[in-house]
Design goal:
The chain has 406 residues and is of the alpha+beta class. It has 13 helices and 9 strands. It folds into 2 domains: 236 residues, Bira Bifunctional Protein, Domain 2 (BirA Bifunctional Protein, domain 2), CATH 3.30.930; 152 residues. Bound molecules: alanine (ALA).
Length: 406
């Protein structure tokens, strides 16, 4: 099943179950100074959860553009190294604003996964918040999930908050066991292990509280539901690829990048990391610039600048000697324009902004990289770059710290 089919199957299923289809909001949250970027599907509904906004509907469904780089949910440094982390991704979601709660949320998710997507039940596991007997009972009694497939975890894994403040609540996650082949091989590897075997692909948050700046939790006016499923992860499972980079969301972008640089792509070779980083960061760059974020030295613009520079650094590994990112972002537009038609009109602007940023950085890149190489050659096996070198790379050559750390 192609990603485009997954998107529409999801929306259709929830529409059939009384949800209003709402468009993805911008990556720049409107009127929310507490967040750098839209990092989840619920962001555009924050005030609905808080009871400050009344809509014509109490059930909604979306596919939402998200960026998790900088801020509370930050996956930047994992990108390229795992099968599943991205700076930009699309989150499928269904939401209830004081309408249904745990029973229905669990039922919808399970029915969609097992009846519509047809995931085999014997590959699925669920988790609940440690004290949430109610959710555990619903999984077991209502959906027949065996008790030994229901795990309980604490705050870190099963309590979700959008940021340091705002709506939050206990959560219940659904995992797919990809099999022994993807295990890290450690004797401790079991459900919940951070490796690529047990893939968390869906999160149900039972929104119950508003967290204030001093950490106090105030009950929401009405309990609500916020769910999120990673489109790329569902595609990975259905298309049975090694990582999300093997899915149709990425293959064309990677294939075209390989053609452009003249290097073959092999998902198992060391160079694959650089292909993945370039593809991931090209997506984030396309959508961020498309939503009006400009590279700069502060705030959102600085996160974008870091993403662009990291992509260029990896592009160098792939053999690019001149600006290329303005071309890979155009592959992203090709790939995504059916789902996000506004990209067609924005394309010349995105390419212009990216090219200007690339040209500027390429000027200092070579010199910075030779300094970095020289210093790396001096390092022993601890591989710690002295602070003053990292600072010089930043200050003189515009290398953000995470770029030197690649
Ligand atoms: N808001 C929840 C998440 O992002 C669903 O995981």
């Amino acid at each position: 099943m192609r990603a485009s089919e997954i998107r529409s199957l999801f929306l259709k299923y929830f529409e059939k179950n009384g949800h209003t289809i709402v468009e993805s909001s911008s990556l720049v949250p409107s009127n929310d100074p507490t967040l750098l970027f839209t990092n989840a599907g619920m962001v555009q509904f924050k005030d609905c959860f808080l009871g400050k906004d009344q809509r014509a509907y109490t059930r909604a469904t979306t596919f939402q553009k998200c960026v998790r780089a900088g801020g509370k949910h930050n996956d930047l440094e994992n990108v390229g190294f795992t099968a599943r982390h991205h700076t930009f991704f699309e989150m499928l979601g269904n939401f209830s604003f004081g309408d249904y709660f745990k029973k229905e949320a669990i039922h919808f998710a399970w029915e969609f996964i097992t009846a519509e997507l047809k995931f085999p039940k014997d590959k699925l596991y669920v988790t609940v918040f440690k004290d949430d007997d109610e959710a555990a009972n619903i999984w077991h009694k209502q959906e027949d999930v065996p008790l030994d497939r229901i795990f309980r975890f604490g705050e870190k894994d099963n309590f979700w908050s959008m940021g340091d403040t705002g709506p939050c609540g206990p959560s219940s996650e659904i995992f797919f066991d990809r099999g022994e082949k993807y295990s890290c091989g450690k004797s401790t590897c079991s459900m919940g292990c951070d490796c690529d075997r047990y893939l968390e692909f869906w999160n149900l948050v039972f929104m119950q509280y508003d967290r204030s700046e001093n950490g106090n939790l105030t009950p929401l006016p009405r309990p609500a539901v916020d769910t999120g499923a990673g489109l790329d992860r569902i595609a990975l499972i259905l298309q049975q690829t090694d990582s999300s980079y093997g899915t149709d969301l990425f293959q064309m972008i990677i294939g075209q990048t390989a053609k452009l640089t003249g290097q073959a792509y092999d998902s198992k070779a060391e160079l694959a990391v650089s292909f993945h980083v370039v593809a991931d960061h090209s997506r984030a760059t396309t959508f961020l610039v498309g939503d009006g974020v400009m590279p700069s030295n502060e705030g959102r613009g600085y996160v974008l600048r870091r993403i662009i520079r990291r992509a260029i650094r990896h592009g160098k590994q792939l053999g690019f000697k001149a600006p290329f990112l303005h071309k890979t972002v155009s592959f992203v537009v090709e790939q995504m324009k059916d789902a996000y038609p506004d990209l067609i009109e924005k394309r010349p602007f995105i390419e212009r902004v990216v090219l200007a940023e690339e040209e500027q950085f390429f000027k200092t890149l070579e010199r910075g990289l030779s300094l970095l190489d020289e210093e790396m050659a001096k390092l022993d096996r601890t591989k710690t770059l002295p602070g003053e070198v990292a600072f010089k790379l930043y200050d003189t050559y515009g290398f953000p710290q995470d770029l030197s750390a690649v």
